[in-house]
Fold this protein.
Amino acid sequence: GQQLNQSPQSMFIQEGEDVSMNCTSSSIFNTWLWYKQDPGEGPVLLIALYKAGELTSNGRLTAQFGITRKDSFLNISASIPSDVGIYFCAGLGGGTSYGKLTFGQGTILTVHP
Amino acid sequence: DTAVSQTPKYLVTQMGNDKSIKCEQNLGHDTMYWYKQDSKKFLKIMFSYNNKELIINETVPNRFSPKSPDKAHLNLHINSLELGDSAVYFCASSQVVDTIYFGEGSWLTVV
């Protein structure tokens, strides 16, 4: 089946620092999504990417859909304590995988004030 | 108003028991899902229903049986619970496949 490799697995940063995380896949995805999960909650969609090469921002968050359609990255600028959580990339395939989100392993972000 | 609500939030039960988790969405979405998150936080789809019809059924033991009485509800029934079933189960819904709304999760612990 399709698999996503997300890195890093965890990050410990100081408030104000920038953060970068990425996902790679052996398969092509039609859509890349980035989610955040707060403790005790379900994942919440942050950014959706639909075209290879697309660069999209949502406030301090910026994500890009890789040209090969096999990778994506998420940047968070000027981190703040409420950025703490688990960030997941997810890919949405086509064909027989239509409608099925494949998630990365997650990046646990800790922000020290 | 909670968009996707699932109950119970916490469930502790003994091996061999049968339990159900209920899910309801008030978003008017046609598609609902069950995802499982294991102890390493890995999220994996289990089932997907569109207008009460099963459209995705991953390799899940047949002890897990989803039931959709109408398009706003998707319940998950688990028979003969095993220790390895301990996980967080997320219900979700969507109208378009790339915008999925998750519930808050149901923490299942099998002892």
User: Anything to note?
Assistant: Chain B has a mean pLDDT of 93. Chain B is about 0% helix and 60% strand.
